Amino acid sequence: MLDLIIRGGEVVSGDRVAKLDIAVQGEQIISIAGPGAITEKARRIIDVSGHIVVPGGIDLHTHLAWPIPAIWARREGAETQSSEAGTLAAAFGGTTSIIDFAMQTPSTMPLAVVNQRIARFDGHSYIDYGFHCVLTGEIPFEALDQIGEVVALGVPSFKIFTTFGRRDPPTKVDDGHLWAAMTEVSKYGGIMVIHAEDDDIVEFMLKKLAREGRTGAELIHMVHNSLSEDISFRKVIRLAEHVGAGVYFVHVTAKEGAAAVSEARARGLPIYGEALHNYLVFSAEDYTRPEGQKYHTYPALKSPDDREALWQGILSGALSTVATDEHTVPKSIKLAGQTIEDVCGGHSGIETRMSVTFSEGVKKRGMSLQRFVELTSTNPARIMGMYPKKGVLAVGSDADIVIIDPEARRTLTLDDLHADTDYSIWEGWELEGYPVTTILRGKVIIEGGELKGNPEYGRFIKRGIPPEVLERPVC
Q1: Is the pLDDT of residue 71 over 90?
Q2: CA torsion sign, 263 to 269 to 275 to 279?
Q3: Half-sphere exposure of 248 (CA within 13 A, CB side)
Q4: Number of domains observed in the structure of the chain
Q5: Tell me: the pLDDT tens digits for 333-353?
Q6: Alpha-carbon distance 369 to 444, whole Å?
Q7: Which domain covers residue 35, as residue numbers?
Q8: Strands 443-447 and 450-451
Q9: DSSP-derived 3-state class of residue 183
Q10: Are residues 442 and 360 part of one domain?
């Protein structure tokens, strides 16, 4: 007897959209067939007629249970929302897997911090999870020596910041250490994850605006600007080409960044770009609104033209994924910073990513359902070494399945959302289309607005990057 049959829905499976039934046994999909073709009995049948069936969403960029810099929190030891709270919100929003971070600092080493983060999430996540390893500052040679062991552990993606040299401790990695990290990561079949801004431009603009007496938080986009993105993206791409490394650029914000990624991909380089769903609907103009700081995520919102360039990038295929940079803090912390020096980054978006992308992309802009699935699930899985176990509805894949009601209309309120937060930039946002059921490895964890899962369901995802992802732009 089968464990579960999902019947009557419009299934988005690979490059096709069709009415299909899905059979689940244990944690995997064991059959996908035409309506009524699965004749075995099942312990449970879910009729999803009139709904769309997609693979569980994958968010490649989250910061849960993550230290909040003291300059933002005004105290030591503060953290973003817990892994339980964040993954609960993710599940309600149709996301079944996330990739968070483990950060090496001058006083720590990569292997230790990765193991610590795995232990931190174990038994404290409603959905499956993995990690990128962050390398910071003047990366010790001893840390570089551990890259192979970290990859073998199932963490083959390594994040670098090219800015924030003044943070304590500094996260900026200079060109020489970036070169060294790229070389080691490539040797072991890993991929680079880059927050790319030109730190010299950022520092110059901080000093220039301070001299002019223009230091309000609403001017943050003038510091973390398009020129900075343009210069840094192109430098990183050139270095990656020299080394033969694959690069995933987090939070592309400007038309210049999108163009740099697109041009590199046209030359066959394994370069991938990520858009954040808040960058797709807000702009720097929102910084001038009351409590405008709440819209800020680093690097910074840019102009409406840049926003449109991001849409062109995700619709055309130049950009590969939609993520969140989830970083939820209390409103008191979010609004405490009043200047370009101390405005707090991040927002609560882990629950709204799938629905906003569906509503704004599919419903308003005519994005195909296949492209929606590519951006929110399949491409993240392919780039970061989870495909085809995750990111696709196929025989043998994990039964990570989300049911979307395409006609559901709602105006979001804070009470609709499940993150541990007292504010949301999405409050009042009008949506058409919303996830109503979330299934993780065959277990129904969200159904009809009710929680069915628990924080012991989530498992660590051991990943390995396929060679073709590092050879050419596969998605």
Answers
A1: no
A2: negative
A3: 30
A4: 2
A5: 999 999 999 999 998 999 999
A6: 23
A7: 4-55+390-406+437-451
A8: antiparallel
A9: helix
A10: no
pLDDT per residue over 421-431, tens digit each? Answer: 999 999 999 99
Q: Angle at the Cα of 348 (from 347 to 350), degrees rounded to 5?
A: 125
Say if residue 241 is in the same domain as residue 215: yes
Extract the tokens encoding 390: 């995750």
User: Does residue 183 register a pLDDT over 80?
Assistant: yes
Q: Does residue 359 sit within a domain?
A: yes
Spatial separation of the C-alpha atoms in residues 186 and 181, rounded to whole Å = 8
Domain holding 441: CATH number?
Answer: 2.30.40.10
* Other Cβ atoms closer than 10 A to 145: 13
Q: At 108, list the tokens.
A: 């720590």
Does the reported pTM lie above 0.90? yes
Contact 10, 51 (CB under 8 A): yes
Give yes or no for a contact between 111 and 142, defined as CB atoms under 8 angstroms apart: no
In this structure, the answer to whether residues 10 and 156 fall within a common structural domain is no
Neighbours of 410 (CB within 10 A): 14
Mean pLDDT over 267-296 rounds to: 98
On whether both 162 and 236 belong to a single domain, the answer is yes
Q: Look at residues 293, 323, 278, 326 and name the one whose alpha carbon lies nearest to residue 82.
A: 326
How far apart, in whole angstroms, are the C-alpha atoms of residue 17 and residue 9?
Answer: 10
290 and 216 co-located in one domain: yes
283/251 same-domain check? yes
The predicted structure's pLDDT at residue 165? 78
Burial of 452 (0-12, 13-18, 19+ CB in 10 A): middle
E-strand ranges in 83-221 read: 95-103, 128-134, 157-161, 191-195
Is residue 11 a contact partner of residue 17, using CB atoms and an 8 Å limit?
yes
Q: What is the pLDDT of residue 76?
A: 83
Tell me: do 36 and 97 sit in the same domain: no
Do residues 20 and 131 both lie within one domain?
no
With 80 as the cut, is the pLDDT of residue 167 above it? no
pLDDT of 370 reads 98
